[in-house]
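Lab notebook, bench 4. Still working through the backlog of constructs that have no structural model yet. Next entry is a single chain of 196 residues. Request: give me the structure tokens for it.
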Amino acid sequence: ALLSVVGTGGGSIASITEDVPNQTYTVTVDTAGDGTVALALTDDDTINDTASTPTLLNGAGTGVLYSNAVLVDKTDPELVSITRADPVEQLIDNTVEFVVFRITFSDAVTGLLLGDVTSTLPAIPVDSISGAGNTWYAFCNIGGNTGTLGIAVDSGAAVVNQVGLNYAGGTPDPNETYAIAEPNAVPLSVKNWTLY
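Model written out:
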């Protein structure tokens, strides 16, 4: 019989410990990377019970039994991009009530709170956030103010992926901003949008 590691994550068997004699074993696997990992037991009828009778785990002849797969994730979630979501134009006038940024992480994450996302212009705060998984949205209240507006996600935020690894910060690319100006400074060609 042959016991091996299969799956997209890869790895190798580090040790096999007998817990209950001739019955229960613990297999320790050294994982190689991110992905799924499972054990494959190839039964060639050489696994015998205590009376030396083949167990025929998968019927007579060679067969393969698989364990449940386990997800291995060793990579911290990263901030992939911050982009303009609505409107998508960079240059806007300050009569617009809100602008919306799209925040994209490399993994599905939880724990992103309003206080974790800050504006680069104190006069234009982040009013609310929404989203789930790897895509979130930050809504900023313009309030008649002007300037170059961007946002940042705090590196100390309690943002974690599905296996509990934390977002550690970093600068995304792209990291887009809005240029907010008085109405007479914005060309008419960029004023036709629909906010939602």
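Notes after review: The chain has a mean pLDDT of 86. The radius of gyration is 27 Å. Flag for follow-up if needed.
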